[in-house]
Amino acid sequence: MVAILGSFDHRLSALETAMRPTQIRTHSIRRAHENIDKSLKAAEVILTQFDLTRKAEAKILRGPHEDLESYLEAIDQLRSNVNFFSSNKSFKSSDGVLNHANQLLAKAISKLEDEFRQLLTNYSKPVEPDRLFECLPNSLRPSSGSPRHQGDASGKSSSEHQNKSLEAAIYTVPTLIPPRVLPLLHDLSQQMVKAGHQQQLFRIYRDIRASVLEESLRKLGVERLSKDDVQKMQWEVLEAKIGNWIHYMRIAVKLLFAGEKKICDQILDGVDSLRDQCFAEVTVNSVAVLLSFGEAIAKSKRSPEKLFVLLDMYEIMRELHSEIELLFGSKACTEMREAAMNLTKRLAQTAQETFGDFEEAVEKDATKTAVLDGTVHPLTSYVINYVKFLFDYQSTLKQLFQEFDASDPEAQLASVTTRIMHALQNNLDGKSKQYKDSALTQLFLMNNIHYIVRSVRRSEAKDLLGDDWVQIHRRIVQQHANQYKRVSWAKILQCLTVQSGPGGDGGSSGLSRAMVKDRFKTFNVQFEELHQRQSQWTVPDSELRESLRLAVAEVLLPAYRSFLKRFGPMIENGKNPLKYIRYSPEDLDRMLNEFFEGKTWNEQKR
C-alpha cells in the first residue's frame, strides 16, 4: 500500500512539472490583457482631455461677451487640462498640447482682463448729488438745492438737540454697481488672481473706481483748496464753504466711502491683501482733498468768530470717528486713518487756543464805540450771545477739554465761562469811566450787569455758574441802581429838605418867602435838566426801567408833596405863583415816566 502511494506521489509531481509552462503563459496573457485595458483607458482619458481642450478652445475663441459664465467655466477647464498634461508628460505630443493650452489660457486671461475692465467701466458711473441727498436722513437733506443742511455751522440753533436726532438717523448706502453685476466681477477677479494677474487687476480696479469716486465728489461741490486760498477768502464765503465741508464729510464717509468699501469687499472677496490695497488706493486722493481743507482751516489765522465753525468741524470728525476706524481699519489704510485722527486733534487744539484768544480779547477790547445813552454795550450782547452759542456745544466742548486734560470737563466749562464773564465785567468797568456824568456811569453798569444776569438766568449757563453767582450779580445790579439814585437825585432832594430849628425869618422852618421862591426855582431848573438829559438815556429792560422810575418816584414825590404843602401857600398868595410852582406832583409823575426812553432832543421838543 505504501509502495502504491509512493508511486502515485511521484507521478503527481511529474504532472505538475509538466504543467508549469502552460500556467506561466496564461498569466502573461492575463497581464497583457490588463495592460491593453490600462492603455485603452489612458488613451480614453487623454482623448477626453483633448476633447475638453478642444471644446474649451471653441468657447474661448468666441470670447466672453456672449456667455461670460460659460467662458469662465472654459478657463477653469483649460487650467485643469494644463495641470493634467503637466503631470503626464510621458505621452507623445503632450508638450505640444501643453504649449497650445498655455497660449490659449494666456489669451483667455487677456480677454478676461479686457472684459473686467469693460464691465467695471460700463457700470461705474459718478453718483449725482440728488441721488446722494436721497440717501441722507430727512433732517440732513437740503431744502432748496443747496448742499448745506439746515443745521450747519451758521444756523445752528441747538447742537445738543441735533446730535440726539443724528443718533437715530438712518443713512442708506447708495448702490454704486448693480447687484447682478457684482458676482460676475467677482468671478472675473478670481480668475485673474489664479492666473497671477493681481497687479493688472489692482491697476484696472484702482484707476476706474478712483476716478469715478473723485468725479462724484466734484459734482457734489468738493474742491481742493490750499491754506493760501483759505486765507484770502472773505469770512462769509469761508463760513459757507465750511458748512458745505461738514456736509461733504458726512456724505463721503457714510455714503460714498462706505459704498466703495462694500463693492470692493464683494468683488475682491477672498483676496484680503489685494482688497485692502484696492480700497486704500481708490479712496486716498478723495480723503486727502477733504482732509486738506480741514487742515487749512485749522492752520489759518485764529479769530473769535471761527470758534463755532471749528467746533462744528471737530464735532463732525468725532461723529465720524468710529466709521473712519471701521472703513479704514486695514494696514493699507493706516496713513488715512492717522491723518483723520491728526486733523481731529488739530481742530481741538485750534479751538482751544481760539477760546483763550476770545477770553483775552474780551478783557482787552478797546473799542471806543461810545454808548451815549448808557444802554447795553455791543460788546456785552456779543459776549453773551457767544456764551449762549457755546452752551449749544456743551457735549462737544467737554469732549474737547478731555483731549488735553483728564479733570472734570463740566468744572472746566464752568471755569472758562466764569473767566469770560469776569473779563467782560472788567472791560465794562473800564468803559464806564468814559462817562463824565457819574449817574450815567452807574446807569450803564446797571444796564449791562442786568443784561448779563438776565441772559444767564434764561440759559444753561445758570446751571454751571450756580445760584450764588446769579444772586451776587443781582445785588451788584441793585447797588448800581442805588448809586444812580444817590448821584442823580441827592442834590435836587436837598432843595426839598428843610432843617427844623429855632430862629430865622421863617419861624420854625427857617425859610423866608424869598428862600422858598429860590428853592422852587432851583428845583425847577434841576428837574428840567434831569428830565431833558435822562429822557435821552435808555434802560432797555422794561421791568428794570419801571422799577427804577418807581424807586425815584417813591423818594421824590413824597418829598415834593410835603414841601409843596408846607411852603406852597407862601407863594400862591403872592404875585405870579406859576413862575415858581410850575409842576404838580402829577406832572412830575408823568414826566418821570418819560425817563430812560432814549428819546432824542427833537422828540422831546415835539
From TrEMBL:
<feature type="domain" description="Exocyst complex subunit Exo70 C-terminal">
    <location>
        <begin position="244"/>
        <end position="594"/>
    </location>
</feature>
<dbReference type="InterPro" id="IPR004140">
    <property type="entry name" value="Exo70"/>
</dbReference>
<keyword id="KW-0268">Exocytosis</keyword>
<dbReference type="GO" id="GO:0006887">
    <property type="term" value="P:exocytosis"/>
</dbReference>
<dbReference type="InterPro" id="IPR046364">
    <property type="entry name" value="Exo70_C"/>
</dbReference>
<keyword id="KW-0653">Protein transport</keyword>
<comment type="similarity">
    <text>Belongs to the EXO70 family.</text>
</comment>
<protein>
    <recommendedName>
        <fullName>Exocyst subunit Exo70 family protein</fullName>
    </recommendedName>
</protein>
<dbReference type="InterPro" id="IPR016159">
    <property type="entry name" value="Cullin_repeat-like_dom_sf"/>
</dbReference>
<dbReference type="GO" id="GO:0005546">
    <property type="term" value="F:phosphatidylinositol-4,5-bisphosphate binding"/>
</dbReference>
<feature type="region of interest" description="Disordered">
    <location>
        <begin position="134"/>
        <end position="161"/>
    </location>
</feature>
<dbReference type="Pfam" id="PF20669">
    <property type="entry name" value="Exo70_N"/>
</dbReference>
<dbReference type="GO" id="GO:0015031">
    <property type="term" value="P:protein transport"/>
</dbReference>
<dbReference type="Pfam" id="PF03081">
    <property type="entry name" value="Exo70_C"/>
</dbReference>
<comment type="function">
    <text>Component of the exocyst complex.</text>
</comment>
<dbReference type="GO" id="GO:0000145">
    <property type="term" value="C:exocyst"/>
</dbReference>
<keyword id="KW-0813">Transport</keyword>
